[in-house]
Amino acid sequence: MSESNHALDPSLLDPDTGFSLNPEFVEEVIDAIHRHDIPAARNLVYPLPAPDQAELIEQLKHEDRRWLAQAIAADFDAETLAELSPDAAEDVMEALGPTKSAQALAELETDDAVHILEDLGPAEQQELLDVMPAASREEIQESLTFAPESAGRLMRRTLVAVPEFWNVGDTIDFLRAADELPESFYIIYTVDVNFAPTGRVLLGTMLGSKRDTPLADIGIGTTYAVSTDTDQEEVAYLFRKYALVEAPVVDDNGTLVGTITVDDVVDVMQEEEEEDYLRAGGVTGQDFQASVWETVQSRFSWLFVNLITAVLAAAVISMFEGTIEHIVALAVIMPMVASMGGNTGTQTVTVAVRAIATKQLTDSNSNSYILKELRIGLLNGAGLGVIMGAGVYLKFHQLSLAVVMFLAATVTMTMAGLWGAIIPIFLHRRGLDPAISSAIFLTTVTDCVGFLSFLGLATLILLA
User: Fold this and answer.
1) Taking the domains of the chain in order of start, what are their residue ranges?
2) Which residue, of 173, 236, 319, 452, has the greatest Cβ tally within 10 A?
């Protein structure tokens, strides 16, 4: 994703946040849209850099997005497409039409164009590719053959590579004479006769060296090359671990075919975190702008799964109807135990999922981590159990009921800590995404264990 060359008028920025658009400006654009005032809309939107145009479009409703896209189609900034979410990009391209959309996609870096096209259906993809210039179409089609969320999809084709035996002067002369160079680059790759990367030279290092200095003397031999089928999460991990700004991509033969830059990796990190966060709650990124019926359909399945877990918890409670009838106070304080267990488990799952994603939690240290969370759950459960038990005693003046609360809180929070650690590890080992799947399993465990321990102990102690 390239950086915009336009400067934004500071008066259009929200004074409270500093960088987001001023809400009054957004309202002014919406008013122009609703008045169907094309000149006013153009005058407001054209001066905006691409990222701010994208921010504006994201805030609009579907029909307003389409109207605005048509209004500014004559001088539409292609970079705006690269900044949009898939849902918003689809709205804009629908309004622009296939020819104008294909022209905009052809102006983008290959990775940005592929990122937009991969979210469209096969028929929509082909319609755009058919009217795209041949050179751009061939590059994009080849990139689309790589697996989704792989380095092959993430890479851009434009890069700077020179023979490994060149010196600084040769390279500078080549760069000055080149007809086309990447819009921004940080690394110059050195390659052998087979076009396999042999090293990398930082642009700043080269510019600070004398012309007769061999690139081999100032280059870094470790290339940190990734293959085209490397998962994008692994690419992001590589960039984080070695603080990279750019990394080469090679095919099965080791030939240099592209490069990945840090701005694209930042996008990957943000997208992965947003996707996991949204899917953990059973929603999607399109949920905000979707219609009522579309939202109902997308959320229903997740809520149905939660209903099943609630039925299981209710089944546990029904086993102790007689106990609750004899001691009504149990119904008042019972939710406290399950709630504390759920919160304990959520804390543990959150830490575990993050540690798995950052490679801190691995097979080699998983057992020690599980034992650690077990101890943490036990200590927190005992400590809070004392407080909760004391509160129950002050309220109901029953020592036996306070003991039940203490024991149930201790057991429930201990089990929540234990299973909050085990579940993400187990799911990860089975090839499932723990960020998405852990919550539903954890809820089942904490609710059932919480109610079972509390009501079971109450039956044993209070009705014995």
Assistant:
1) 10-145, 161-276, 292-462
2) 236
